């Protein structure tokens, strides 16, 4: 059998390969246990309108509360499951969890949309919009517009026709889209115009260094200019300081997310943060001073 022969061949040329495969397999098995057990958490990072100070939504970010290794960020475990069926299992868990959180917050009088990151393999699975419709039907009290899906620019571009079809189906259900890490992919302007996105998120790597690196500043300026020309709302990620905030407002970008505003936090810390935020006098209503 070809598969068997392939394995033997690997054995001949690389004795470490089987070991590597086994480690991968064990890591994935461990992640499956985490998913089935109670070790995954969603953290939430607020998104604000810098001009008014208003909180416009939150982004859900996955964390793994590992019994031995502590709180793990997605960079420590997502690569292991990338493009495997586990990525889809995780995606469905995250969506379900976000819907539950929306119900909880709704009953507490907190009406903030949740942005959920959708992996390319999940979005392009083929039955994504159908599964999303089923999910929404299980939570009839939650308006679909409370859910916003963040899709990587690169994912949308990978198979533009499939992405466009699926996104249109989801939008017909009332769900909104954001394009994540904008500026890091290679989308042409034509494609950007085609994409039915309700929000463009400027990648944090450009925003973070925009005040010290003229090239990054040029990219940020161009994205803001383009988004304004296409009349698409945009949000800057990675806003770490007040100086960033003021520069972005001056350039015409009013929505922001970043450590300077708030770090991602567990769901039960959000109500407290929402009360404390309006007291951050330096950050509130920047629009009035500019
Ligand atoms: P992303 O969607 O672009 O999320 C923004 C990342 O930037 C988050 O990292 C967030 O914690 C971090 N961040 C926010 N503000 C700042 C800032 O001011 N400075 C800096 N240096 N970083 C900031 P995180 O939580 O580690 O997530 C990394 C990536 O993992 C996300 O990038 C997203 O692509 C992916 N991810 C996170 N949660 C999920 C999920 O539930 N599903 C999928 N498929 N991917 C996820
Ligand atoms: Mg995101
Ligand atoms: Mg991003
Ligand atoms: Mg990113």
TrEMBL record:
<protein>
    <submittedName>
        <fullName>EAL domain-containing protein</fullName>
    </submittedName>
</protein>
<feature type="domain" description="EAL">
    <location>
        <begin position="24"/>
        <end position="278"/>
    </location>
</feature>
